[in-house]
Each structure stands twice: as structure tokens, then as C-alpha cells.
Amino acid sequence: MDIRLWVALDVSGRQAADNILEAIWPHRDVKIGMELFYSLGPGYVAALAAQGYRIFLDLKCHDIPRTVARAVGAVSGLGAEMLTVHAAGGYDMLNQARQAASTMAIIAVTALTSLDDQSLRDVGISGTVGELVGASARVAQRAGVAGLVCAAGEVARLKREWPGARLVVPGIRLPGDDVGDQRRISTPAEAVRLGATDLVIGRAVVQASNPKAELKRVVAALSHP
Fold first, then answer.
1. How many angstroms separate the CA atoms of 48 and 51, rounded?
2. For the chain, N or C: smaller number of CB within 10 Å?
3. What is the pLDDT of residues 69-117, one digit of tens each?
4. Average model confidence (pLDDT) for the chain?
5. Catalytic residue among 60, 159, 212, 216
6. The CATH number of 6-164 is which of 3.40.640.10, 3.20.20.70, 3.40.47.10, 2.130.10.10?
7. Would residue 216 show up in a list of annotated catalytic residues for this protein?
């Protein structure tokens, strides 16, 4: 599979989103997360899909199985290619989400890249992030979803354990970039070398003074890992 590079439209307004789309043209793989979805609604997603954009809908659904299934069904006709749900919702939730997804690929979030072992201990989870990721991957595979969101450092192990999984790596930064609130980040070259199938890059491009030039730097890094 060719590496897919998703530019995260992590902004809240239509004008800001449209400015980014114009700046990165003709790149058409974009991620729409909660901020933009909650601001502009499903109509914006459908409009972009109708214009030929390939959309990764990053809503991280997490609720009781019936509620998540109905939510997935509600967005399944918007034209998005992928949708995220939290693996922590368990087998039944993941399975029902998959069944409601129509042609969308359901991607299970293992552990947010902003978390580390101390973050888990803070909420009463005694295991490590690695253990949580492994358990999440096993339940997601059993539920039959398309793949996982994970940090680059977890990709090699997950690829061995689930060779056919789509492995989506957020927290992508070029050397020298600000890490922001991410704890488990990676360069494009490292993520590709480890076996990622999809990369998500947000603020490094979106907040750049020249988003197109920054995106070209990332593409160049992918071309010469």
C-alpha cells in the first residue's frame, strides 16, 4: 500500500479551513477532526467529498455500542474514507461500529499520543501505554475493524501481530519542529521505516507561514526515508 499523508484541518472556521485547502492544493487527503466537525457540521464534510477530497473523519467515537453504531451510521453517507473510534469502548462497540460503517474504514484509537505511563496511572490504570496499545489492538482485530491509530514506536510490533492492519500514525513532526502537547512523536521517515500505512500531519503544516512549502518538505522526507 502506498503511504497516505493526511493533512489535519485542525481549525474551527470555514475560512481558515478553506485557506489551508487552497494553500496545499492539489493535495486532497485531509483529516477533519472534532474541532472543525463540531464547528461546521456534516454538510462541510459532504461538500468536500463531493469536490473530490479524500477525507479521514477523526471523531474518536466512544460510547455504549448502540449509540456509537447509530452515530457511525449517521456519518456513513458523507463520503469519508475512514472514521476513528476508541478501542477502549470494547469489542461490542467496535463490532457494531464496523457493521454500521458502510464503505468507511473503521480505525480504532489505541492510546492517544499525548498519553504516557504516568497519564495512565493518573486515571487508575496500572499498566503501561505499551500494554494498553497491545490489548486495544487485539480487541480491534477480533472485532474486524480496518486498523489502528498508534504512535510510531508501536508500529513495528503491531505490524508483526496484525500484518494486514492499516496503521495510522499521528504526531508527525520534522526534525526541529515544536512537539506541542504530543508525548510520542515521530518523523515521517521513521514512521514509514517502521511500517506505517498512513501519516497525519497537522500543526507543522497548518500553522506554518508557508503551508505548501512545509508540506513539500514532508513529502520529500517520505520520498527519501
1. 5
2. N
3. 999 999 999 999 999 999 999 999 999 999 999 999 999 999 887 888 9
4. 91
5. 60
6. 3.20.20.70
7. no
